[in-house]
């Protein structure tokens, strides 16, 4: 596979990367910890966004995206929640080994699972979470309670058993502090709860009826994909306005391709990548993602989710054409301006030029 490098005179530092120091490690549930970081002056984020942690684990450099569970309007230090995942290299390493004083490289906060806040708002926002999917939800819930005195929130939270409820004490505290503005409904597969078993569309419909969901209610969903699909189905059957439903996904959508490769052109494309003031030229097969080929050539590209959702790998296509199927993380405005996601973007023309950032 061909690979060549053309250096420019200007070589600027990529400001999207920072190094954070762990201030505290807090156990928040069985098999889940909060990593609380010291906050650099330059670190800013919106409730609901995530950061990408970059770490050497067992000799391999890996990246994982974790949602910020804190709110910048009250918490002095940002934090992420890391739930142990069976076979998960990063999650197990952090749960077992993370300590105060450790330094971790990150990519800047990003993500569009956010909302605007106004003291004049009078909304009912309902949050459906499963397992560690509560992390961005908690950030948004707390911010609404802080910034919008006339708004109310409901958390519908599913877990296997009570010991796996992340932020159990915080949820109880919020219920006590905001008696008429915050309510939590627990769904457990095992043990006493408001609802028992795994969520079903019928259960979601019953909950919607119980809490008074109507056409103006905003709904936020975050959790494992099967759980999110069930909740979305239940909301549809409950006639919830689809424009009021927001989902934070961790898997790319399964869609049929709309970009068809022109069979009259070659099976490979010459792709030029502009990154950090330098140009790199690689040969990419037209059925391969640009990021995958760049990483195979030891090019240190920015990325995180590798599924078309987080936009860490975003670049602007300034020559040629790149597929945009499943680029769910990009807004229509970004698509119109020519932005692509290299983690799922495949070259559709013989020559492609992409400026990362």
TrEMBL record:
Domain 2Fe-2S ferredoxin-type: 269-357
InterPro entries named in the record: 2Fe-2S_ferredoxin-like_sf, 2Fe-2S_ferredoxin-type, 2Fe2S_fd_BS, Beta-grasp_dom_sf, Cbr1-like_FAD-bd_dom, FAD-bd_FR_type, Flavoprot_Pyr_Nucl_cyt_Rdtase, FNR_nucleotide-bd
Entry's Gene Ontology molecular function annotations: 2 iron, 2 sulfur cluster binding; flavin adenine dinucleotide binding; metal ion binding; oxidoreductase activity
Cofactor: FAD
Statement: the UniProt record of this protein carries the keyword Nucleotide-binding: no
Taxonomy, superkingdom: Bacteria
Keywords: 2Fe-2S, FAD, Flavoprotein, Iron, Iron-sulfur, Metal-binding, Oxidoreductase
Family matches, as Pfam families: FAD_binding_6 (PF00970), Fer2 (PF00111), NAD_binding_1 (PF00175)
Chain ranges of the FAD-binding FR-type domain: 15-116
Name of this chain's protein: Ring-1,2-phenylacetyl-CoA epoxidase subunit PaaE
